[in-house]
């Protein structure tokens, strides 16, 4: 069944497809927030119908989510015994989560209808004020749904992608707050501050509670962040749209396998192709 983006996105409140004062006002606020701490939230971006349609789609694909239970560090790398024991690269945390890979979402379904809607990519690019701006070319990860269940969470990490756009679809009964340390990895790895976040002594951490229908723009490549554990039987759904600074970029094979349980030939063909020299 095809969908109409005008019924899914609150374009009256947020006319992202039309140049004018209303769009400019949203851009000004988002740009200010991104400049301050690399995170901006557009409340009520979806309509009530949009929330319902995306929830139904996620429910229908929930059995295709790749569930993983392991221990990871901030960078999704292996342990290095040559480093000091208190180095953040040697701090590992339990991770339990699930991702519904991008190739499960139909071109005419609600999630891709929103992603492909007129003005969506251009609006995100204008928010970020980036000249070099491309959709993530990863066929498993350009637009996905993170599905977290009771007891699940996502420990502290940096994103592989330079820009991540998330759309809150459904919350659990309790828990699931988004916590982040803004821009602590701008220019260098800043291991000392990363260590303080991990041991609970940093004063940089902010807490954000997103509601269904909220659109979040986040520079997760540079801000350490996590999702707190959930409580209750209802799963938490969050759609993730990813953008990068270089064309044709995909995830590294090791991390792709961790997150989605499989890789494609393209992940091996393009391994190591990155726009920066950060660890992950």
Topology record:
Elements: H1 5-8, H2 21-37, E1 39-42, H3 48-61, E2 66-72, E3 93-100, H4 110-115, H5 120-128, E4 134-135, E5 143-148, E6 154-157, E7 163-170, E8 174-175, E9 178-181, H6 191-199, E10 206-208, E11 215-218, E12 224-227, E13 230-231, E14 236-244, H7 253-260, H8 265-269
Antiparallel strand pairs: 1-11, 2-3, 3-5, 4-14, 5-14, 6-12, 7-11, 7-14, 8-13, 9-10, 9-12
Pfam families: HalD
GO molecular function: metal ion binding; oxidoreductase activity
Family: Belongs to the iron/ascorbate-dependent oxidoreductase family.
Low-confidence stretches: none
Largest sheet: 8 strands, antiparallel
The radius of gyration over CA amounts to 18 Å
- Structural class call reads alpha+beta
Q: What is the CATH first-level class name? A: Mainly Beta
Going by CATH, the architecture would be Sandwich
- Taking the alpha carbons of the first and last residues, their distance comes to 39 Å
Q: What is the string of helix and strand elements?
A: HHEHEEHHEEEEEEHEEEEEHH
Percentage of residues in strands: 15-25%
Helix % is 25-40%
Oligomer: single chain
Query: CATH homologous superfamily name?
Result: q2cbj1_9rhob like domain
Number of helices: 8
Could you say how many structural domains there are in total? 1
Q: How many runs of DSSP E, i.e. beta strands?
A: 14
- Rough outline: globular
Average residue pLDDT: 91
What would the CATH topology be?
Jelly Rolls
